Amino acid sequence: MGIIVQLFENPLNEMFGNFTRILFDFFGNYGLAIIALTVIIRGLLIPFNISSQRSMLKNQALSAKITEVQKKYPNDKQKREEEIMRLQQENGAMSISGCIIPVIQIFLIWPIFRVVSAPLRHISQVSVANIEKMMDLAGLDSSKAAVDNIQLIQRLGQDSNLLQKCIDKGYIAMGQFMDLNFLGIDLTMTPSITKWTSDPAYLPLLMIPILVVATSVLSIMLANRMKPDYKAKKEAKANQKVNPSAISVQADSTERTALIMNWVFPVIMLISCFTMPAAMGLYWIIGGIMGIITQVVVFFLLTRPYENKKKELEAQKELAIEALKTAKLVVSNGKKKK
Length: 338
Hints:
By secondary structure, the chain is mainly alpha-helical. The chain has 14 helices and two strands; from the N terminus they run H-H-H-H-H-H-H-H-H-H-E-E-H-H-H-H.
């Protein structure tokens, strides 16, 4: 299994490292390179968001039939879910995009973490052998040279004599030692709840986990509120509390899985913020902002037109019912006169 993981991991790490290096060369700033990388990655996920929303809208269109199935099989959960799944498949409402998006986001954490943990290797493209020599010279554990050179970068930044020795020995070129600060924050540092009291440099780092959670939660809440069936489900849940005998709204397995992963993800990110370089937190913050933008775009592109069309059809249906009632009344009055 380890060999299989390496077959995928190493090329992926190299690809992300090279791409981040291109972005760094273009912007000349490590923070902007991370931001651009995040925008590109989340932009590539937009088609999955659109596919997921289309599936959701199709499910909404089937809500009346799904309710009939729920009423028909109130005590047979297996049969109920089988019938709902059959309806979804027949109408093209089945989609795994809702689950794919969180899975992809989790999958991409590893190569991005590797890049921000070993920027000398993946971005500056210093060889692992030279990183090991520099770590030995600095008195650091060189066994982690391939996956973690944050301590070495910090030592080189603090000790100009050590940096000069490494340059003189040909271990690193001056151009390969990058500035890894962004808006006054050292993105190689890891946020800490306790260290900021003794080291003021850690104080601004506390904004990283706060913004990570805030943007992530806001994105999730916005996504839920912009669902076409948000108001209907809210009303159904309220009715369920008032009238326990009412048929409860059933979420399909895909929706339940996506919901669980969406809310577990911010917790994982918060904990991880205190164990990873701040650059990882910046990636998550921009990812949360991109999530918010994506939800707004998808809402106005798909959801709003769907809701307007639905209101139009409901208005036409009401007019048709009123016209039918009027026609029946005229016929009834005509019979009475005779």
